[in-house]
Amino acid sequence: MGDKFSRDEKIAWSQHHIARGFTALEKLLKGSAGKYATGDEPLLADVFLAPQIFAAINRFQMDMSAYPTLARINEAYDELPAFQAALPARQPDAPSSA
């Protein structure tokens, strides 16, 4: 996208495509998710999904109100110490927020 589009246009484009994926995933998980995406224990699906939701919310300002299952699962991720330790800002090479 480079310099052809404004920051807002880039975010809107990203939100559109994230919404397509989240809509499909919400439909898939709505009746079958446990505390986490595939049950009551975090599994590989959660290891993949957690950073996707994190980036959608924090990088692309995604409103999660249309995705209650994903929002609930994300809240469960926030309680996991290993997932918290893996956050980008907690990495040794993360840029300082000066």
UniProtKB/TrEMBL annotation:
Pfam families the record matches: GST_C_2
Regions that span the bilayer: none
Alphabetized GO MF terms: glutathione transferase activity; maleylacetoacetate isomerase activity
InterPro entries according to UniProt: Glutathione-S-Trfase_C-like (IPR010987), Glutathione-S-Trfase_C_sf (IPR036282), GST_Zeta_C (IPR034330)
Highest rank taxon of the organism: Eukaryota
GO biological process: glutathione metabolic process; L-phenylalanine catabolic process
Listed CDD domains: GST_C_Zeta
Domain GST C-terminal: 1-96
Protein family according to the UniProt entry: Belongs to the GST superfamily. Zeta family.
Protein name: Glutathione S-transferase zeta class-like isoform X1
